[in-house]
Design brief:
single chain; mainly alpha; Rossmann fold; six-stranded parallel β-sheet; 6 strands; disordered C terminus
Length: 569
């Protein structure tokens, strides 16, 4: 009963601190860590030596990494695209080298500097997914690229965790690493055919009962974690690989959604333990390194992403928005350092140092991402240096277009077909270099520019424009465009909105028509039912048309990549 009361008080402290974080619009992870500090030996001393919390912590980390693995399909590199792969690897190399050099300058040993530099490399996929989802930015260009290079980071983290876990045994590091790698490779060779040939059939059997699927998922994740631990790896590595093996299952996202509440409960214990283990006695000696490392992450990481994306032709706004998503360290970083302490490579002081860097960068980057739309206009002129000059100075065609499409995406694909049937005097405006190259391949008239650039709108001759369609769903952007178009006395303006309230506001501001994508499918089907009723032949014709259209869209790359389907990660 004493343990039960103690646990109840622990949960109460976590609730209070989490509530404060919600008010401050901060990730709850910060509240969990601060709760750990309060509940640790320096204050209430509720956690010290609590085996239950330690056990919960192990389960929480295993579930966290298992769910991360579920989203790392073997096809992920192809899905995230070239720019995500290059940006992800480029940022990892820059941050690890920069962090290592900073560590050496401050007098840390090469091993400690290496750990710190690698820990600083990873950004939080979970936090960024949540923030991008809240901003409705997962569908935006920078959102897709950001999730892509965050997944590249996760893949690199797997390799690093495997290496560190293999060094936890006494003996020759080279021999141990080789022997453990061979054992791990042997397990994977056995698991690969099981994952491709056996698991899909078993999944269908398990999925018939939601409870059975839930039990199977936990058994698979924790069972493989235990198997890898027995083979000489860490539980963390086993859980990750268990998730990856199961990621090809058609029910991987359903499994992930079912396990998330369980993960959220148990992972609290990890951050509580992390906070309780912080050592404040000598931390004053690390104040300057903590500040320098934090600034390096908050400023340096976004800069390298902006440079790399600028080199590949992306405009300054896309680079800036994507860059902010790597301006913090992740739960992976904290797990990595905690593992370093466990294997005897690091001291508690280094764990405290990295945890404080985490608190500063997670808090700082959260506000930066939340208020990025207000920050960007104030510094946009300074960011011009990150754009290719030939793209910035590119002359706008003097031709006057009758039909103008702003944003070539899934909706734009259909609208462009209508434009091409009506006239040759049409143009597509987009700021994704990849999209522009595809349009040029199709010989469709296009311009690479940002439609929120006032100078560009002034240069673009809109006097003869009969119809302008914006497929951009952001309300503020569309209100801005509507004001600019009204100044130039354009004819028909069609905009896009996500919410009914946004659509009504755009109508009030003067839009001629507002597209609400979520309602279009239902509207189309209702008209088809009215027309066909129970006539099988009409449905067969519509079916053939739909299949042909879907195949064309897949060729255009309109199908959602697997990593994007679960937005509430």
């Amino acid at each position: 009963m004493d343990i039960f009361i103690q646990f109840g008080l622990i949960v109460l402290v976590v609730l209070i601190l989490s509530g404060i974080m919600r008010i401050l619009k901060q990730p709850l992870i910060i509240g969990y860590i601060i709760s750990g500090i309060i509940l640790g030996p320096f204050f209430l001393n509720f956690i010290s030596g609590n085996q239950t919390i330690n056990f919960f912590s192990e389960i929480g980390v295993a579930l966290l990494l298992f769910i991360v693995g579920l989203h790392l399909s073997p096809k992920v590199i192809k899905e995230v695209g070239k720019i995500s792969l290059i940006t992800g690897i480029g940022q990892i190399v820059f941050t690890s080298i920069g962090g290592f050099l900073i560590g050496i300058v401050f007098g840390f040993s090469w091993l400690v500097s290496l750990y710190i530099s690698i820990a600083l490399t990873f950004s939080s996929t979970i936090i960024i997914m949540k923030l991008l989802s809240d901003k409705e930015a997962l569908e935006k260009l920078y959102g897709k690229i950001s999730i892509g290079f965050l997944l590249v980071q996760d893949l690199v983290a797997i390799i690093i965790l495997i290496v560190i876990s293999s060094l936890s045994t006494a003996g020759n590091p080279g021999n141990i690493l080789l022997f453990t790698s061979l054992k791990g490779l042997g397990i994977i060779v056995i698991l690969a055919p099981i994952s491709y040939f056996v698991l899909p059939k078993l999944s269908n059997f398990f999925a018939k009962s939601q409870e059975f699927l839930f039990v199977f998922s936990i058994t698979w994740g924790l069972g493989l974690a235990a198997l890898f631990f027995y083979a000489g790896f860490s539980i963390e590595v086993g859980a990750l690989i268990a998730g990856i093996v199961l990621s090809i299952s058609p029910y991987s996202y359903e499994i992930s959604s079912k396990l998330k509440p369980l993960r959220d409960f148990f992972i609290i214990s990890f951050f509580l333990i992390l906070g309780s283990q912080m050592v404040f006695g000598n931390i004053s000696n690390f104040i300057v390194p903590i500040i320098v490392f934090s600034l390096f992450i908050l400023i340096g990481n976004p800069l390298i992403v902006m440079i790399l994306m600028g080199i590949f032709g992306y405009n300054k706004k896309t680079g800036f928005m994507a860059g902010l998503t790597v301006a913090q360290i992740s739960e992976f970083s904290l797990i990595l350092v905690a593992l370093g302490v466990k294997v005897g490579h690091l001291s508690q002081e280094i764990l405290s140092l990295v945890t404080l860097i985490g608190l500063i960068t997670i808090g700082g980057s959260t506000y930066m991402i939340m208020y990025s739309d207000k920050i960007y206009p104030r510094i946009s002129k300074l960011l011009t240096v990150f754009e290719k000059k030939k793209l910035c100075k590119k002359e706008i065609p003097k031709k006057e277009y009758q039909y103008i499409l702003l944003g070539y995406n899934r909706i734009g694909y259909s609208i462009l077909k209508a434009f091409s049937k009506l006239t040759k005097d049409y143009v597509v405006i987009d700021f994704d270099p990849k999209t522009i190259n595809e349009l040029k391949t199709q010989k469709a008239p296009c311009i690479y520019r940002d439609v929120e650039d006032v100078e560009f709108l002034e240069e673009l001759n809109l006097k003869k424009a009969k119809v302008i369609v914006s497929t951009i769903p952001e309300k503020e952007t569309n209100l801005f465009l509507l004001r600019e178009f009204k100044k130039r006395n354009t004819n028909i303006v069609i905009l896009t909105a996500r919410q009914i309230s946004d659509a009504l506001e755009l109508y009030k501001a003067g839009a001629d028509y507002v597209i609400l994508p979520h309602f279009l499918g239902g509207e189309y089907v209702s008209k088809m039912i009215e027309k066909a009723q129970a006539n099988q032949e009409i449905y067969s014709i519509e079916r053939k048309k739909e299949i042909k259209e879907l195949r064309n869209r897949i060729k255009q790359g309109h199908e959602h990549p697997e990593v994007m389907k679960n937005k509430k990660n």
